[in-house]
Amino acid sequence: MTEPTVAPYKQLRRPTDDRIIAGVCSGLGRYLGVDPVLIRVGLAVLTILTWGTALLAYPVMWFLMPEEPRPAAPVYPDPADPTWGQPPTA
Fold first, then answer.
1. Whose CA, among 22, 48, 54, 71, lies 20 to 30 Å from 2?
2. Angstrom distances, CA of residue 55 to CA of 43, 51, 71, 82
3. Residue 54 lies inside a defined structural domain of this protein
């Protein structure tokens, strides 16, 4: 039996690659399965309708939503290594 490679449940996280300010709307969009632009427009409309009160939810969500873990950095060869640029020996 193989181990699952993803979590068995959806996780509400702020992405590191698709953000405008902090990634709150993008994270909500990914979690709900909708375009983040719709979440951003909805937040703007809600902010106007509530005279700015809804905008207080953004920093709260920013604080509460964890950030996605960053992918591991690729390992590049060191140009100072004397064997750099030479074909690998078998």
1. 71
2. 7, 9, 31, 57
3. yes
Q: Which of 62, 69, 73 is nearest to 21 (CA)?
A: 62
Specify the higher pLDDT residue, 79 or 19: 19
Q: Residue 12 contacts by C-beta under 8 Å, 6 or more apart in sequence?
A: 27, 28, 31, 65
36 located within any domain: yes
How many Cα atoms within 13 Å fall on the side-chain side of residue 78?
A: 4
pLDDT of 82:
72
CA 18 centroid distance within chain:
6
Whole-model pTM: value is 0.65
**Domain limits for position 38:** 24-64
Count of Cβ atoms closer than 10 Å to residue 24 Cβ: 25
